[in-house]
Specification:
Elements: H1 9-22, E1 29-32, H2 53-56, E2 61-64, H3 71-81, E3 84-86, H4 95-105
């Protein structure tokens, strides 16, 4: 066998719920949005982390993954979901690129 696919939802559901219950003062939860299609075949929950958000109970959430190349989309996501958006993969190595992109986009 090369590898087996497993459904990560039960594991991450447990982790998110336990973090919520055991650590009421934790500042935020930071999760990377799934970026590869078909992570859990045949389910819509593989395309985003919306399944986990209610388990976190409305506490601060930082979504990351796939937002660096589309800052307007990141801002729209943040407004629609009422959460923070983490960007960085494309910007970490070149801070000047970020300032250039902001000037040319807005």
């Amino acid at each position: 066998k090369v590898a087996e696919r497993f459904d990560p939802v039960p594991l991450y559901s447990y982790v998110v719920k336990e973090l919520h219950d055991r650590f009421p003062n934790i500042a935020y939860l930071h999760m990377v949005e799934p970026m590869s299609p078909g992570t859990v075949e045949g389910t819509d929950r593989a395309r985003n982390n919306d399944y986990f958000r209610p388990l976190w109970g409305g506490r601060p959430w930082i979504a990351a993954g796939g937002f660096s190349n589309n800052l307007k989309g990141a801002l729209q996501h943040a407004d629609a979901k009422g959460e923070l958006v983490g960007i960085g993969r494309a910007w970490t190595a070149n801070v000047r690129l970020l300032s250039f992109h902001f000037r040319s986009s807005f």
